[in-house]
Amino acid sequence: MTLNMVVEHLMIVCVAVIFTVLLGLPLGILAYINKKAGKVILWMVDILQTIPALALLGVIMIVFGAGKTTVIIGLVLYSLLPIVHNTYLGLTEVGPAIKDAAIGMGMSKLQRLIMVELPLAFPVIFTGIRIAAVTSIGVAVFGSFVGGGGLGSILYRGIHIQNMRLILSGTLALMVMAVVFDFGMSWIEKKMKTGMGYKN
Amino acid sequence: MIEFKNVTKKYDNDTILDDISFTVQDGEFVVFIGESGCGKTTTLRMINRLIKPNKGNIYINGKDIADEDPVKLRRSIGYVIQQIGLFPNMTIAQNISVVPKLLKYSKEKCDEIVHDLLEMVNLPFDEYAHKYPSELSGGQQQRIGVLRALAASPPIVLMDEPFGALDPITRASLQEDMKTLQKKLKKTIIFVTHDMDEALYLADRIVFMDGGEIVQMAEPDEMLANPANNLVKSFLGERVNNGHHLELKVKDIMRTKVVAVRKSRSVAQCIKIMANRSIDSLIIKNEDETYLGMVAISDCLTAPKNQSIESLVNRDCPIVCKEDDAKTCYDKLVESKQKYCVVLDEERKTVGIVTWATVARAIAGAVWGGDE
Ligand SMILES: Nc1ncnc2c1ncn2[C@@H]1O[C@H](COP(=O)(O)OP(=O)(O)OP(=O)(O)O)[C@@H](O)[C@H]1O
Ligand SMILES: [Mg+2]
Q1: Helices (H), B226-370
Q2: What is the tens place of the pLDDT at every residue in B67-125?
Q3: Which ligand is nearest to the CA of B32?
Q4: Is the CB of B38 under 6 A from ligand 1?
Q5: Of A100, A111, A116, the CB nearest to B81
């Protein structure tokens, strides 16, 4: 195992999460704004999640060939659910009195979204991002099957040559990554909530 | 001027408002009252187009509001709701300046507005402006709710049971603030409540609704003298005029010899003053002579003697205006279980106090005659 592989793994996860946010956030907002589109969107991301990760990567590989692009696309599709879902949920759960006040003050739809609803939904959305990041670390292991590199190849090789030390070190590295991400992002989450004057 | 012309609202086949017409003059404080579900909120929310009528028209200054841009319309109308609805992600200052910002006022202008408004309700800017709503008490939050509605100086303010969720004492003090504010600002206010005391205290005119119709629209005195039907009468309860209505004002019964000291005095000085005059509490005033609060001797004795008295001030004592009905004192004393009411004039300066003894003397005078 080399540091290079850890970095590569992290890069894949980070790029995938960034793209998932860029795609998932607008989809979640759209689902909130338009109830009809919302039904379809939520249904689709749900379905995506039920496809086994390996199968999903296989299908994408047919189109994009082996390589990092395939892994990233796979990860994006696979982690859309928590982000889209939490965006939708966070926005829906903003209190009716607050929404009523926002409309009554004369905010346009967009102003309401930017000034009130998104800031209030953000902690929930961030939880979605955290879940997406942490699961992506695990799912990215399958990347090595489609030539994406990362820590998956260590595990794969370890299993192949029955080298317990290799398997364990790869697993440990993955676990440490997941835990660090989880803790780090939970900490940011808490900071944001207290920053907004929430009292827990 | 707000004008409803034959306004009807239906949900499916339920008629919620049935052909309602009324006019509210500029600067008038109109209170809507009635049983739950009679259509008060529906009426109010039509004015800023949160609800659309099925039939009829609503005019503001002669213009049909259906022809106006709802977003623009709402920015020109203040709106306060029972659930307060402050934005938890914004500080108090940001909350207050929401509408001014929507209207693209400059930053300096917004700051100035926040400053002036907080001043007006005695919440010091430095202490409160940068707090979040969750750090304030319910009463303080609703004060901010009212300020937010006033921030862009809208000529019309809609208030839907703004004080309904507050405890009686806080509610009373907000009602007072409201009355003082209204004297100063002269807004057109549409106010919904189901508390008759609140309606009688605040309203220039009361609109009594029942089952989606207006039963009576009258000034408080007129409603007390001639309630339109039994439902109105039952809402008014014992307050209905039986002929011998006493026109006694607070200023007629209050004690005018009061000791008030500035908040910069030390605890030791205050104890001395109280000892010299054999009194157990002192009125504390701000540097500009306006009323700040009270201190009790018991609090002074346990505090460091050279500290300034300001930190011991409590605001438990109910406040009445010298022009209020004398009965207000009695109600407030009963409600607050305090020993005094403090009487303020229009400039919030202390002009007297009313104690239980004062009230008893006034009642004795009224019952047995003779002068107090
Ligand atoms: N969206 C809606 N759909 C159907 N019925 C509604 C809707 N909104 C209000 N109503 C009905 O309209 C009637 C009047 O409601 P409104 O909120 O105006 O009453 P209110 O006088 O403000 O009562 P309260 O004192 O309880 O606030 C009620 O019977 C209510 O059930
Ligand atoms: Mg209501």
Answers
A1: 230-236, 250-253, 267-277, 297-302, 326-336, 356-368
A2: 999 999 999 999 999 999 999 999 999 999 999 999 999 999 999 999 999 998 889 99
A3: 1
A4: yes
A5: A100
3-state class (DSSP) for residue B338: coil
Extended strands (E) in chain B: 2-11, 14-24, 29-34, 55-60, 63-64, 77-81, 156-160, 188-192, 205-210, 213-218, 260-262, 281-285, 291-296, 319-321, 340-344, 350-355
Q: What are phi and psi of B137, to 5 degrees?
A: -75, 165
For residues B357 and A40, what is the distance between their CA atoms, to the nearest angstrom? 73
Identify the pLDDT of residue B372: 37
What are the residues facing B319 on neighbouring strands? B342
Interface touch A105/B74, C-beta < 8 Å: yes
> Which tokens is B29 given?
């404080």
Our measurement of the distance from residue B344's CA atom to the centroid of its chain's CA atoms, rounded to an integer in Å, reads 15
Nearest chain A Cα to B99, which residue?
Answer: A105
What is the interface pTM, i.e. ipTM, of the complex?
0.85
- From B31, B35, B42, the mutation candidate for ligand 1 (largest count of ligand atoms within 8 A of CB) is B42
* Residue B230 Cβ contacting ligand 1 at under 6 Å: no
Domains (range + CATH), chain A: 3-195 (1.10.3720.10)
CB-ligand 1 contact for B149 (6 Å cutoff): no
Structure tokens at B234: 């039952």
Q: What is the pLDDT of residues B101-110, one digit of tens each?
A: 999 999 999 9
Flag if A101 and B86 touch (Cβ within 8 Å): yes
Return all residues near B253 (Cβ < 8 A) that are at least 6 apart: B326, B329, B354, B358, B359, B361, B362, B372
B interface test, pick of A105, A122, A196, A199 with most B CB neighbours within 10 Å: A105
Average pLDDT, chain B: 90
**For the range A182-189, what are the long-range contacts, defined as Cβ-Cβ under 8 Å and sequence gap of 24 or more?**
A182/A130, A182/A134, A185/A126, A185/A129, A185/A130, A185/A133, A186/A130, A188/A126, A189/A123, A189/A126, A189/A127, A189/A130
Atom of ligand 1 nearest to the CA of B209: 21
The ranges assigned to domains in chain B are 2-243, 250-368
Q: Which of B86, B99, B158 sits opposite A106 (nearest CB)?
A: B99
How many whole angstroms separate alpha carbon B91 and alpha carbon A120?
13
CA distance B6 to B15: 13
- Residue holding tokens 């979640």? A28
Nearest chain B residue to A195 by CA: give it: B89
Tokens of B337: 């279980």
The answer to whether A16 and A72 are in contact (CB under 8 A) is yes
CATH superfamily label, B2-243: P-loop containing nucleotide triphosphate hydrolases (3.40.50.300)
For the domain B250-368, what is the CATH code?
Answer: 3.10.580.10
Is residue B95 within 8 Å of B133, Cβ to Cβ?
yes
The chain-wide mean pLDDT, for chain A, equals 90
**For residue B81, how far is its CA from the centre of ligand 1 (angstroms)?**
15
The rounded Å distance from CA B37 to ligand 1 centre is: 5
